[in-house]
What does this fold into?
Amino acid sequence: MRGARDARLMVLRCLIVDDCPHFLDAARALLEREGLAVVGVASTTAEALRQVQAVKPDVALVDVELGNESGFDLARRIRSETSLDPSRVILISTYSDEDLEDLITDAPAAAFLSKSRLSARAIREILGDTLDTVDTNGTGDCKRPST
It folds into this structure.
């Protein structure tokens, strides 16, 4: 299982999608301090879709509320319009998961993470075994291991 362990030590490339500039700055600083590479930020659905295609992140953190837009809708569009696997999308919010339970369950995303619990460790725990498919060359060519 050396490959999975080595992948966990690789720098994860992260895209953060949130309509609050203050949160984008704070989350970027936190995650970079904890060893993640924030390769892009976006505040709108259109910007997020462009960034996913351009920077090929290993994981996208998507706020469920993007002003007048929906992060849940964005997660569905990421699934249908990009090569980023839904297992690499993490929904984030200041709301609790209980408040959003039905929407989270139906969303094409790996999990929900409260903004108050945001950390590199929490992201890595959510991604779990998918970390051995991290795209280390930025091409989007991730392959799942055969079982």
